[in-house]
Amino acid sequence: RIRRRELRSPHNLDSFGPCFFSIFKSLVPSEDEIVKQEQLLLSLRKLVKKEWPDAELHLYGSCANSFGVSNSDIDVCLAINDYEISKLDILLKLADILESSNLQNVQALTHARVPIVKMMDPVTGISCDICVNNLLALVNTKLLKDYAQIDQRLRQLAFIVKHWAKSRRVNETYQGTLSSYAYVLMCIHFLQTRKPAILPCLQGMEATCRVIANETECAYFDKVEKLKNFGARNKESITQLLWAFFHYWAYWHDYTNDVISVRTGRIISKQEKDWTRRIGNDRHLICIEDPFQVSHDLGRVVDKFSIKILREEFERAADILQYNSNPTVTLFEPY
Ligand code: ATP
Ligand code: MG
């Protein structure tokens, strides 16, 4: 493997800036789509309130963390304090309720890692996954949204990375590649470690919000309106960052020893986390620490076959940004 630490981004890369920016713009959901999502949420709330007056429905995932591209499914969490009835029974009951309204393709996936009910709303055409009491997902949704407000380059970078990952089919956890959530964390960590830094480490600052979600204490500085100028000293453009992001994952990241950690804003060692050997199905071939569930490696889905695919895709992307004359097209060529 050739190490290319010495390479610099090509001079002409910035001429593609406007084109990458318009790709970003084209991925942002329209007003119309957001209105439809809200409509669907309102009608789901009505249905749920009838059965459980105290329950609440919250949006989470990409429709709420500001990293949602257009035409995504929406993720909804039912927050309910009913100790009489088990989580699975709540899901089955919920599936019943949805089924008897006019929602389509209602399916309860009770054996998934995060059990959900899936369905499609024929009025808005939007598909939706509903989970029960997954409060950690609500908190990590807010953390991502708060980071996005600090520097606009994060959203631009993450949209393009997600679009690349979907086009190249490396955003499929059941095939051993990474989740969208993992890619956004990779982007946040990358911007935390630029010199000068573009993003701060919110969990390393004095906590202004504190909750306990699913037995895990979650605390960080969330007054992000005070951090609007944080990244101003760093003048890197979106194309330079994109180039450096892919070069980092293709040629610079130390897959043998390193864990990326948004929680600390730096690299930590696998040794320190005891992530050096395979335990059960966790192989730790690419290590991305969850910011709140710190024993949770978001790279755990990656196996010895998919790590190879993933690293080849990082190299392909890095090489396209280095040498290709038409990177804004070639980067996203379908796999
Ligand atoms: P997409 O646009 O691809 O739907 P998404 O942000 O909704 O992107 P998903 O991977 O569908 O990403 O995850 C939805 C949400 O579920 C995430 O935003 C996060 O809050 C939570 N989540 C997903 N995977 C994990 C995980 N492994 N650990 C903790 N939370 C997770
Ligand atoms: Mg989603």
Describe this structure in words.
Strands 1-2-5-4-3 form a five-stranded mixed β-sheet, with helices on both faces. A three-stranded mixed β-sheet has the order 9-8-10. Strands 6-7 form a two-stranded antiparallel sheet. The chain has two domains: 11-27 and 145-200 and 233-330, Poly(a)-polymerase, middle domain (Orthogonal Bundle), CATH 1.10.1410; 31-136, Beta Polymerase, domain 2, CATH 3.30.460.10. It contains ten helices and ten strands. The protein has helices spanning 17-27, 31-51, 87-100, 135-148, 152-167, 180-192, 238-252, 270-273, 306-323, 327-330; strands at residues 56-60, 74-79, 104-109, 116-120, 127-132, 209-213, 216-220, 258-261, 266-269, 287-289. It is α+β, with helices and mostly antiparallel strands. A hairpin with a 4-residue loop joins strand 8 and strand 9. It is 39% helix and 15% strand. It is globular, with a radius of gyration of 21 Å. Bound molecules: adenosine-5'-triphosphate and magnesium ion (MG). The site of magnesium ion has 5 residues, from loops.
